[in-house]
Amino acid sequence: MSAPSGIATRLPGDPPGGRRAVAVWGIGVSVYFVAIIFRTSLGVAGLDAADRFDINASALSTFSILQLLVYAGMQIPVGLLVDRFGTKRVLTMGAVLFTAGQLGFALSPSYGMALAARVLLGCGDAMTFISVLRLGNRWFPARRGPLVAQIAALFGMAGNLISTILIARLLHGVGWTATFAGSAVAGVVVTALVVFFLRDHPEGHEPPPVRHTEPAFVRKQIARSWREPGTRLGMWVHFTTQFPAMVFLLLWGMPFLIEAQGMTREAAGSLLTLIVLVSMVIGLVYGQVIARHHAARFPLALGTVAVTAAAWSAILIHPADRAPMWLLITLCAALGACGPASMIGFDFARPANPPERQGTASGIVNIGGFTASMTTLLAIGVLLDATGGSYRIAFSSVFVLQAVGVTQLLRLRSRAARLERERLVASRVEAVHVPA
User: Fold this and answer.
1) pTM of the entire structure?
2) Which of 129, 132, 134, 359 could bridge to 28 as Cys pair (CB 3.0-4.6 Å)?
3) Which CATH number fits the domain 19-201+217-432, given the four candidates 3.40.50.10420, 3.20.20.70, 2.60.40.10, 1.20.1250.20?
4) Contacts of 227 (CB under 8 A, 6+ apart)
5) Domain parsing of the chain, residue ranges
């Protein structure tokens, strides 16, 4: 692969990559893969959960809201933990927690205990993706960063695919407890892989020690990351692009397709699967394009928002109560671009922060999409209860958050681009003076 336009082929201190890097990084990705299966398993079990715990739409949305609230709230602490203790320790802790949460969800006899289990699952889930991003940064050259991140997200979407296909079938074949408890075995397997085989970085590429002698170190670490326009731009890219698809896949897509569009559970599951498959393809395309042409990042992010908004508008203003199948397929294809577009946010934050702040900066970026998702999940649940089940009104809340996000993107774009160009020139000068 050629170096991206305007970026040095090899930066000082770049890790070599190679087969061992792929193997070690693959262990981290497997943890993320399982975490996504557990996270999205509720998306195909929403109606079953409503019946099992005898709850309404608002209470059902609380499952996902609480899980995402924990996830979003832990992103900066997790980033600091990754910077301080490394990937292996944090991933191990995360795998243990989300496995316990999935098992607890399987065995919960009441709504309250099920909520507690989803909180535990959210805690563990929160520790995975930032750790995988840092692992990729430690094992692969910087020019591979966009593609490596997109491939990690692709495996996450594969986990989503397992939920929409396998978990859904098992749920109606062997029942609630056997399905969720059986899936927890995968968590045990990946925990063992991390403990015995994962390494934080290749030999000879140890990161500089992070000094914690200052009493206000944590506050300063966060403040320095936040002051970077690239970090804030990355957060708003993540905020604006991720949530439409996450809300649809995580909870409200299946009820919308079955109750509002009159589809069978099998047909609705096929459309959710389409979102995941499209996302996997687009993720590879976006990763290759951005790796070669960094200037494409902002147009791809903004274009994804525009296409998603147009698709939702066509569905919600359609005169018939039920949209035609071709329009629903178009919507799901558009939603498939949301996940890959959200990954662009990390590629704005990466060059804006030094290695010792990568975890913290990634945590700030990751807050964006999950905050938007949590807000929209709540808004849809409340509006559904308030309007007697009007999905047209409930899903209109998507446009409000998109408008807020686009405003921030346009505000931050120029300053972030200028500072990134300055750093790029400095890194190329440094690369020229590195001894062969």
Assistant:
1) 0.78
2) 132
3) 1.20.1250.20
4) none
5) 19-201+217-432
